[in-house]
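Collaborator request, handled under Task 6.
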Amino acid sequence: MSDPKFDVVGIGNAIVDVLAHAEDAFLEEHGLAKGAMTIIDAETAENIYGLMGSGVEMSGGSAANTIAGIASLGGAGAFIGKVCKDQLGEVFTHDIRAAGVSFETAPDENGAPTARCLICVTPDAERTMQTFLGACVDLGPEDVDDQIIGASKVLYLEGYLYDPPRAKEAFVKAAKIAEQSGRQVALSLSDPFCVDRYRDEFCDLVENHVNILFANEDEIKSLYQVDGFDEALQQVRGNCEIVALTRSSQGSVVVAGDEVHVLDAEKVEHVVDTTGAGDSYAAGFLYGLTQGRDLATCGRIGGILAAEIISHYGARAESDLKAVLAEKLK
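Structure tokens returned to the collaborator:
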């Protein structure tokens, strides 16, 4: 097996995020499920966009955020995702390449417009997401580059990818290529509502195909349909090689067989926006793992990046993450 060209390749929904402040009353008035990600159609997207306050547009998508985070730390990252050849598609492509990520997926010429995620950030810093998948639904097995998957230490997949049917086919194909190439497969469960939709398939993936699992407390409890975190932890620890579970202000727990690390959350003076916290944690963890760090340090790096991202608006870092990490790990 040749030396890998990339540390991590991510496959996910290529989305442009539109972030705006909103009050809880706005969510209630328009029936938006607080803290969740809901799939919407084009008409609903236009309606909600028109109702939102002034927003900030930036390249996003869960796996794309993670790969951008890895690249910002100096890791070698690649991303596979579908955009349309339109203005937002150009925004996404420019942003992710400018972040140092290899992105070569061919855009759709005449398909659905580039996806966008409308994110309402309430005063408690919680984010509520309404996602129009647009061109993402056209991602298919033909977009999976065998050479890129085989040349990456880790394949990182987002659970959200299970919503578009052809994207799911791409997901499965990539996982098989990674396994056959002797690479590791990482999965983020993405959202408890996503887990509810695909619980049986996710359980099979975790037990039989995934080496590294990322989930927050609600997602892992949803996966095993239990009320307590400890019970979920006991169920998952025997089903996956490495499990990294985030618990918001309670930090994270990293488990690998009999090895268990309970890590405190990094201190944050003021939480501004929780968008991208899980994506950033995965970025830090995978960066550490692919650089040969021990699991406790991987979890610590993940926590440092998550704390940095929630201290400002949006899912991409505004600060020099290399410098932040160097200072924190002194």
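The cover message to the collaborator said: "The domain at 6-14+61-112+134-328 is CATH 3.40.1190.20 (UDP-N-acetylmuramoyl-L-alanine:D-glutamate ligase). DSSP finds 13 helices and 14 strands in the chain. Please let us know whether this matches your experimental observations."
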